[in-house]
Write a structure and sequence with these properties.
The chain is α+β, with helices and mostly antiparallel strands and 120 residues long. It has three helices and four strands, in the order H-E-E-H-H-E-E. A two-stranded antiparallel sheet has the order 1-2. The protein has a two-stranded antiparallel ribbon with strand order 3-4.
Length: 120
Amino acid sequence: MCVRPLRAEPAPPRHEGATTLGIGIEDVEELLAEQGGLCATCGAPDPEHVDHDRVTGWIRGILCFNCNGGLGQFRDDVEYLAKAITYLKGSTCQRVLIHPGVYQTFSRTRGRPPSHSFSA
């Protein structure tokens, strides 16, 4: 029989940033319950990152790794995010029905389509 030794020190918190932001695990669990146990932005299960406003310090919610990193990459700037959304909407290929059962795929952005030949 294998016996696991007891820890002398407390286990690290499950949620990244909770201790550095000065909130307790009970507060984190309450926020997570309010969010239905899902990431506040994408709905992924079991988010572990406490998100906060870097200007005010207010806690905004619990996010998954990808959403937390994504907001950080955009510097929490709504204008940057809006521009990124506009870019994605404009560069995403669209399917257009040109005849019953026949679709054509195109992109609304200027530029050229990717080359399928690699001539040197």
